[in-house]
Amino acid sequence: xxxxxxxxxxxxxxxxxxxxxxxxxxxxxxxxxxxxxxxxxxxxxxxxxxxxxxxxxxxxxxxxxxxxxxxxxxxxxxxxxxxxxxxxxxxxxxxxxxxxxxxxxxxxxxxxxxxxxxxxxxxxxxxxxxxxxxxxxxxxxxxxxxxxxxxxxxxx
Length: 156
Description:
Elements: H1 2-27, H2 39-60, H3 87-103, H4 106-133, H5 137-143
């Protein structure tokens, strides 16, 4: 159990590092071609992401944990979780994409892409636990998109 918890905290630390790298990359001088930037779109994406994170946290309630290991407090499949299995990660990605659009720097988009890949791998590990802890998770995941409604439903 200790190895599983250490590995879970390592994923949380890596997630925090990638999130921090998005901000650092936005503050650094451009390291490639300048990309189109939009303050209005940046703000809209950031606010949408923050709203998704807040809604996710509210809907998770006592099931909320920073670790990819379920705490056994119940499966969240209502509210925003009717539409996506991992809306909190979607919210984080929207916030980071908002930073990238606002910065207009290629290195920020690269870090956001790395964060998206990280979330793909993290959710795979997380869902292995969810299937074993919550009996109905397989059916729920087969009917619900991963990050975007209707997209990347889990194969049975």
